[in-house]
C-alpha cells in the first residue's frame, strides 16, 4: 500500500500530549507504523558524559504513531485525510480530501 505520510510532509497531531501541534516529518518507520516529527513528542533522556558529549538531562524527539498524525491541508492548514489520484499523464499523486488539492506535485 502506498504511503500516506512521507518524509518532509507538514502534519498535525490528532491525539496525545501534543494534540494540535504542527510539525514536519523528519523520518518514517513503515514497519513500526511510526514517524518522527520535528518539535513534537519531546522526551527527557539522562545522558552519561562521554569524550564527545557532556552529560545531563537532554530533550530529544521520540517517534509518534502514524494513526495520531494527519496531513496538513495545503489550503487552510487544518488536518485532512489523504486520497490517491492518477493524473492524465499516468502519474499517481496524493491529494487532500478536504480541499481536493494535490499534496505532491
Account of the protein in words:
The protein is mostly beta strands and 105 residues long. It has a domain at 10-74: SH3 type barrels (Roll). The protein has no helices and ten strands. It has strands at 10-13, 22-29, 34-37, 42-47, 56-61, 64-65, 69-72, 79-80, 82-86, 92-96. The strands form three sheets. It has a six-stranded antiparallel β-sheet with strand order 6-3-2-1-7-8, with no helix packed on it. The protein has a two-stranded antiparallel ribbon with strand order 4-5. A hairpin with an 8-residue loop joins strand 4 (42-47) and strand 5 (56-61). The two termini are 20 Å apart.
Poorly predicted regions are none
Number of strands: 10
| SS summary, helix count | 0
Identify the strand order in the major beta sheet: 6-3-2-1-7-8
**CATH topology label of one domain:** SH3 type barrels
The CATH class designation of one domain is Mainly Beta
User: Topology as H/E string?
Assistant: EEEEEEEEEE
Q: What distance lies between the first and last C-alpha atoms, to the nearest angstrom?
A: 20 Å
Structural class from helices and strands?
Answer: mainly beta
Query: How many whole angstroms does the radius of gyration measure?
Result: 17 Å
What is the annotated CATH architecture of one domain? Roll
Amino acid at each position: 500500500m502506498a504511503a500516506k505520510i512521507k518524509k518532509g510532509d507538514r502534519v498535525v497531531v490528532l491525539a496525545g500530549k501534543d494534540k494540535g501541534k504542527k510539525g514536519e516529518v523528519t523520518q518514517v518507520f513503515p514497519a513500526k507504523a511510526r514517524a518522527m516529527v520535528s518539535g513534537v513528542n519531546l522526551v527527557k533522556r539522562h545522558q552519561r558524559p562521554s569524550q564527545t558529549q557532556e552529560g545531563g538531562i537532554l530533550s530529544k524527539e521520540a517517534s509518534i504513531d502514524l494513526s495520531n498524525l494527519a496531513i496538513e491541508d495545503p489550503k487552510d492548514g487544518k488536518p485532512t485525510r489523504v486520497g490517491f489520484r492518477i493524473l492524465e499523464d499516468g502519474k499517481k499523486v496524493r491529494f487532500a480530501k478536504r480541499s481536493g488539492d494535490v499534496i505532491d506535485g
